[in-house]
Write a structure and sequence with these properties.
Number of domains: 1
CATH class: Mainly Beta
CATH superfamily: Sporulation-specific cell division protein SsgB
Number of helices: 3
Number of strands: 7
Strand order of the largest sheet: 4-3-2-1-7-6-5
Strand content: 35-45%
Structural class: alpha+beta
Amino acid sequence: MNQNTTTVSTKAVQIATVDAEQDHDLSADFSFDPADPWAVAMTLATVTGPVTWTFARDLLIEGQFEPTGDGDVHVWPCLSPCGEAVVIVELDSPAGETLLQFPTRAIQDFVYASLETVPLGEEQTDIDSWLENLLGTDA
């Protein structure tokens, strides 16, 4: 990853999954690499090892305030059973569906840090480097 990568670690509560008997805590790291300014990566520390999901940064930005997302990742604001502001991230895969609950403040901290690194509207990609990496040649 780029040396300017923004990373925020937080705890997630896995609140629903197929075949789950109860909720449990997971560790989650969100990272943002300015070399791919439209994406964020979320790495979950699971009992079977780390699992990384990469999805649009806009989902976290917009999902703090309203339901958003099409496809495999959906994000929306909610209140926890204790009445705390949380952000729900729903992940859908062929293996099943999982709902994760994150403290809103952790998501906000990550989003603000990514926006300080690359503000909205200033996203750019070095096409030559991207092609070089894709093709494995010098562009």
